[in-house]
Specification:
Elements (H helix, E strand, L loop, with lengths): L1 E6 L9 E6 L6 E2 L4 E6 L3 E6 L4 E6 L6 E2 L4 E7 L21 H12 L17 E6 L9 E6 L6 E2 L4 E6 L4 E5 L4 E6 L6 E2 L4 E7 L8 H7 L45 E2 L22 H10 L17 H13 L32 H16 L2 E9 L1 H9 L1 H7 L5 H15 L5 E3 L6 E3 L5 E3 L1 E3 L2 E3 L2 E2 L7 H16 L13 E5 L18 E5 L3 E6 L4 E14 L5 H16 L7
Parallel strand pairs: 21-25, 25-26
Antiparallel strand pairs: 1-8, 2-4, 2-7, 3-6, 4-5, 5-17, 6-8, 9-16, 10-12, 10-15, 11-14, 12-13, 14-16, 18-28, 19-20, 21-24, 22-23, 26-28, 27-28
The structure holds oxidized coenzyme A (CAO).
Length: 583
């Protein structure tokens, strides 16, 4: 075991850079090249990779610190000192006698796009000119991956607009357009490896343009490889400034700004306009280091949706993690961004009078989510009717002695459960769910019915299984037990899952009708209101009949009005004459 000091490597001329993110904690096991911290100069941000593998024992810098070349930043306990590369023990900020810039300049001189063709065709009559789009000097990296393609053929771009994002082992970089014009073709795809000098497309540059010499590309591009020996790039003298169409974005980091062992990931202070076509560049102004970009890609998260909390809006690891957590919990009442539903504006109610703020509990928050989801996803229609339950009520009364003997009370609910089970059997589309992609429905061969229960903590919906196979006595007992469990918060998750249909009964509370919200992915719900004596026309006179108001809400994607009419008519028929349950 050896304790090694890991120092800030050569900053290639920059006096001081700011620590804007620390990616490791004491005790973390790290591998060589793992990003230890993110540093930022006035022109660029970059990850500082680990030069030693082992366990982080101490961190000597904090976010906000200004550090310069050679500052002792971390102590890493390594297991085998001999196995570490020479640069691992960074006692000296300059690992070799040769300054990294010189070394890189030499190397780049041999492999720069100065020798890389940036083909330009002669100008046409209108002064337009075809220009090949060439991968610039990658500063020694063999090949890098295309991780994003930002534009398409036909897009109009301004000089400096991002064409693609390239990523090496340690850094990502934008490949900017070297001139303004129209993209004729792009021959790259995400995941493809490219290397210095590759032709990846062509563009037509509007108007008379000066030649865009290879050196212009070479000079302005940052290196993408992280090794000190491969820092950028061609010496300025290799370019012919007088001939250049100056590339906008890349100039923010010149070879002299090169940071050995670290590479630029994003220009600062230069707002990158998107291509001038209708398409917007979703990555405009995204500000994040390679490690964070990698994390976002692992999670499949679009960085443009994340608000950065780091300095100057930089997206840090925690922002990505918090974003993913929030999406997983999905506790927000607000619809997802981009759903097109304008949010209800937040109002400061205290300006109108006294207000008490009450936090919602978990059940209430879950209701917020599920109701919003159902309301936004299900095109609701509600059908109303009255069931004549005069005979049913008379029968129920005759059972009073038996209820007492069994210590089991029969309310209208268990009869409704059984009648609904029979109606579901007769109308199978009501016992279905639709696939989210809208291409198919699933017809369920089982019959589980949820009952909405009003509890002090909020609305809960326990599910009674196999309703069609149970007696009215069983259903009465089970619904009472489940309702009691719901009120005591003793329901298990499994007891609230697997429902096919829901009954929401407000009969014991009052009201003549309401429009219940479908409990998606179910496709229908029955609202039950207060049973009362109402005048019913029998063909020659009004008769006082016990009637039960019913409201059937359904998902019009799956169920048509005629289906609902049949369901309701059947249900009312069974409730009017429960002998039909035998049929
Ligand atoms: N019309 C008139 N009276 C009714 C009735 C109706 N439709 N339904 C039930 N009643 C009567 C019962 O017969 C009982 O009367 P007695 O005490 O005289 O015997 C009384 O109302 C109380 O019944 P209950 O509530 O104990 O039992 P239930 O089987 O009818 O209902 C349950 C059980 C769990 C559904 C109910 O207690 C409940 O929580 N309802 C609220 C559901 C809800 O909140 N829905 C809205 C969801 S969307 O916001």
């Amino acid at each position: 075991m050896t304790l090694k000091a890991v120092n800030v490597p050569d900053l290639g001329g920059a006096d001081e850079v700011e620590v804007i993110e620390i990616n490791v904690a004491v005790g973390d096991r790290i591998a060589i090249d793992d990003p230890l911290m993110a540093l930022e100069s006035d022109k660029a941000s970059m990850d500082m990779p680990a030069s030693a593998a082992g366990v982080v024992k101490a961190i000597h810098v904090r976010v906000g610190d200004k550090v310069s070349t050679g500052v002792h930043a971390f102590d890493v306990e390594t297991e085998d000192a001999a196995a570490e590369p020479a640069s691992a023990t960074t006692e000296s900020p300059q690992p070799s006698n040769q300054a990294p810039n010189e070394s890189s300049a030499n190397q780049s001189a041999a492999a720069t796009p100065a020798e890389t063709p940036v083909e330009t065709a002669p100008q046409d009559a209108a002064g337009s000119q075809r220009m090949d789009i060439i991968v610039p000097d990658l500063g020694g990296a063999d090949s890098v991956e295309v991780v994003e393609v930002l534009i398409a053929s036909g897009d109009t771009v301004a000089e400096g607009d991002g064409i693609a994002v390239l990523e090496g082992d340690k850094a990502s970089m934008d490949l900017p357009a070297m001139a303004s014009g129209v993209i004729d073709e792009l021959t790259i795809a995400v995941g493809q490896q490219v290397k210095t000098g590759d032709r990846i497309g062509s563009m037509t540059v509007a108007g008379a343009v000066k030649a865009v010499p290879a050196a212009a590309v070479t000079k302005s591009e940052p290196a993408i490889s992280g090794a000190p020996s491969s820092a950028p790039a061609a010496p300025e003298s290799s370019a012919s400034p007088a001939e250049m169409t100056p590339p906008t974005a890349p100039q923010s980091l010149r070879p002299d700004d090169g940071i050995a062992g670290i590479t630029r990931v994003h220009e600062q202070g230069q707002k990158r306009a998107g291509p001038q076509s209708q398409k917007t560049n979703p990555r405009a102004d995204i500000y994040a280091g390679p490690a964070v970009r990698g994390l976002a890609r692992d999670f499949g998260v679009e960085l443009s949706l994340i608000q950065g909390s780091g300095p100057r809006g930089r997206i840090v690891k925690e922002d990505v993690q918090n974003f993913v957590k929030a999406r997983l919990n999905n506790t927000s009442a607000a619809p997802a961004a981009g759903s097109g539903v304008p949010p209800v504006p937040e109002v400061d109610f205290s300006q109108f009078g006294e207000v008490e703020e009450v936090a919602l509990n978990g059940i209430q928050k879950a209701t917020v989510t599920s109701m919003s989801r159902s309301w936004l996803n299900v095109p609701h229609v509600t059908q109303f009717d009255y069931a004549d339950v005069t005979e049913l009520e008379a029968f129920r009364k005759t059972l009073k002695p038996e209820m007492d003997a069994r210590k089991n009370k029969l309310t209208p609910l268990p009869f409704l459960l059984l009648a609904v089970a029979r109606a579901l059997r007769e109308n199978p589309r009501f016992n279905s769910s639709i696939h989210p992609d809208g291409t198919r429905i699933f017809l369920k061969k089982y019959c589980n019915i949820g009952i909405a229960v009003d509890t002090p903590n909020g609305l809960m919906v326990p599910v009674i299984r196999d309703v069609d196979q149970k007696s009215v006595w069983d259903l009465a007992e089970e619904s009472r037990e489940l309702a009691a469990k719901a009120r005591d918060r003793k329901l298990k998750p499994a007891e609230m899952q697997g429902g096919c249909f829901t009954i929401s009964s407000l009969g014991n509370i009052g009201g003549e009708g309401f429009t219940p919200i479908v409990n998606a992915p179910e496709v229908a719900i029955l609202g039950v209101s207060k049973l009362d004596v109402r005048p019913v026309w029998d063909g020659s006179s009004f008769q006082p009949r016990q009637t039960l108001p019913l409201s059937l809400s359904y998902d019009h994607k799956v169920i048509n009005g005629a289906d609902a009419g049949r369901f309701m008519t059947y249900l009312c028929g069974v409730l009017a004459d429960i002998r039909r349950l035998l049929l």
